[in-house]
Design a protein that fits this description.
about 190 residues, mainly alpha, Cyclin A, domain 1, about 0% strand, elongated
Length: about 190
């Protein structure tokens, strides 16, 4: 009986990050067993969670669990349709696809790829190297705020802030990033210059 009280005490005293990891871990185990995935997928899932945990901040544990398992199954060479995972969870398909897309983009480009987004956008709108450097500095200072956000929008917002909010540039950046000026303004509002 005492171990139950200790277990309850431990659960209640976990910090936010630990509590979130515990919730996601429980979902991962439950969904993996329900879908009947092999141990190699579990190992790949654990590696993805450790490497990209901050990227998935703001999404519910069930969404993160399904997205990571789906991505890990593909990476481990055991691809399964998304429906196999969704039938074991109450996660929304749209949100799962969004998290999986972000995960795939980051895996493809590497973790420090935000600089690549900045350079690509700057080349598309002909910005000088000094603006690129200032934008990368802004993004480095705001990395925690931007975790899980669209990297194209974040890069465009940083470039816009680094170029002292020129209005003509805002429209060009939005067009180059495939987004709207409103999205760039909102992302810029979240950043500290």
């Amino acid at each position: 009986m005492q171990w139950r009280r200790l277990a309850k005490f431990h659960r209640e005293t976990l910090h936010g990050r630990e509590r979130r990891l515990a919730a996601i871990g429980g979902e991962l185990k439950r969904i993996r067993e329900c879908a009947g995935l092999p141990q190699s997928v579990a190992e790949e899932t654990e590696a993805l969670m450790k490497r990209y945990f901050d990227l998935m901040a703001g999404f519910p544990p069930e969404v993160v669990a399904v997205a990571v398992l789906w991505t890990a199954a593909k990476a481990a060479g055991v691809p399964r349709p998304l429906e196999d995972f969704l039938k074991c969870s109450r996660a929304e398909e749209r949100r799962v696809r969004r998290v999986a897309w972000r995960l795939k983009e980051v895996m493809k480009l590497g973790r420090s790829s935000i600089e690549d987004y900045v350079k690509t956008l700057a080349a598309r709108v002909n910005l000088p190297a000094s603006v690129i450097k200032a934008a990368v500095d802004i993004l480095e200072r705001n990395r925690r705020v931007l975790a899980g956000k669209n990297p194209w929008v974040s890069a465009a917002a940083a470039l816009w802030l680094a170029s002292l909010k020129r209005l003509g540039l805002l429209k060009a950046l939005a067009e180059a990033a495939g987004t709207t000026p409103v999205s760039i303004r909102k992302a810029a509002g979240r950043m500290k210059v």
